[in-house]
Amino acid sequence: MPIESLKKKIQSRSFWWSDTEKALLPVRNMTRSGYLAKIARLQDVNIVTSIMGQRRCGKSVVGRQYIKKLWDEGVPRKNILYINFFLKAIADVREEKNFMAIVEWWMEHLVDKKNPSLLVLDEVQELENWDENVASIFEDPAMPCRLIITGSNSKMLSDDFSTKLGGRYTTVHVFPFSFAEFCQFTDTEYATSSIDKYLLSGGMPEVLKVNDEEQRTQLISDIINSTVNHDIVSRYNPSNPGLLHALIDFCRTSFSQELSIKSISNTVLQSSKLPKGNSAGAQTTSSLVSTYIGYMRDVYFLYSPPTYSHRAKEILRRSVDKIYLSDLCLSDYKAQTQKGRLLENMVYIELLRNSFKVQRYLGYRNKNLEIDFFVEKGNKSALIQICWQLGDINENRMLWEREFGNLHYTNIDAPKFVVSLDDNVDSPQRDVEHLNIMQFLAWAGE
After folding, report:
1. How far apart are CA 24 and CA 13, in angstroms?
2. In a 3-state reduction of DSSP, which class is residue 150?
3. Closest by alpha carbon to 384, among 423, 353, 343?
4. Angle between helices 33-40 and 59-72 (to 10 degrees)
5. CA dist., res. 255 & res. 408, Å (int)
């Protein structure tokens, strides 16, 4: 495509004109003020800001909301160049020479130098030699613009890119809607009684816009397939795609459960009837499963927290403790039998969303103390157990002993919480506090 034609296409897709601005944001658009505040705090710092998160979680919308915020504050429209590298109409801009020509033209002829300028590169991994080009623009004094990039793979910001920038970048990790955002978006009461609805719906913005169940199921399937094909297969070219798809199906049903690589491998092979990877020179199935779980973590499809233990050998014995889905809409669950697992998944993502370091806690084997989460953030820490409902202590004595007792016998000096949907629970242990889910959300967000 001739560069002049490409310039015209770029201009019409950077939302500079009044007739194109209406396409900047979705029709049902909710301002994600928390993320915008994080990005705004970085505007006077000489770093590259990366907005990262799973496909369709809303990271591109956050970037566009920030553009609108700057326009509303008086930044000239043409001082912000937005390029979405997924658009086929401007596919030629993915070529390095065309991209650099567009950026130089924008900076030299369109930017008002008296005002700040911003270059937003959406899904930047589609750009040829993207890391070298971003580093070059960042270091070039002739291009004094702030840089924001978005992407769907945590490994994008590799050691090589960090070295090129001298570590001068920061990441804003965008998640699907929290429970509070879900309630605001769907006009639902922010209360314990609404938790059920959130657990069954999830927080993917596009999915929440669909009311028809068949369309909703198809959209979730599209999100999964897009994540697999664009973010995993195209980047990693896995040697056994059938195993990858079977593993994704397994993870959708086996989240929030204690697992090992061996048990995952055996279950996936039995359910999918895939051949074992035992040919000479080939990776074993267990090795492939471990590798593919790593890919799924890279693209924010799932998370697997590390294990904290007083005994290093216990950690070494465990290749995977638990896996958690990035959003509950991705789960393939039996709604009446897995609510506790859904709640645990929700709590884990909420802790990550609030920037906690989250680990599984494994106590001494003779006590068999396994705590769902040991969390830390600054001077704040806690041990947390998750339970759907505790019920009556006399009728569910073993449940109470497990949830409260495991916390009581741990020797970490930190607050200890049992989190459930129950109200007004009197803890049987002085050093363990019960929190209703709403109380926990308030604590995590402090």
Report:
1. 9
2. strand
3. 343
4. 60
5. 26
Q: Which element (helix H / strand E) includes 103? A: helix 96-109
- Under DSSP, the state recorded for 338 is -
Exposure string over 111-134, b if 16+ CB within 10 A, otherwise e: beeeebbbbbbbbbbbbeebbebb
Mind listing the pLDDT tens digit for each residue in 64-82? 999 999 999 999 999 999 9
Which residue type is seen at 139?
E
Residue whose entry in the numeric block shows the structure tokens 């242990």: 429
Please tell me the distance from the alpha carbon of residue 9 to that of residue 6, in angstroms, as a whole number.
5
How is the chain split into domains, by residue range?
Answer: 3-173, 179-339, 354-444
> How far from the centroid of its chain's Cα atoms is residue 381's Cα?
22
Tens-digit pLDDT profile for residues 239-290: 999 999 999 999 999 999 988 888 888 888 877 666 555 443 346 788 899 9
CATH superfamily of 3-173: P-loop containing nucleotide triphosphate hydrolases (3.40.50.300)
- The structure tokens listed for 213 are 């169940």
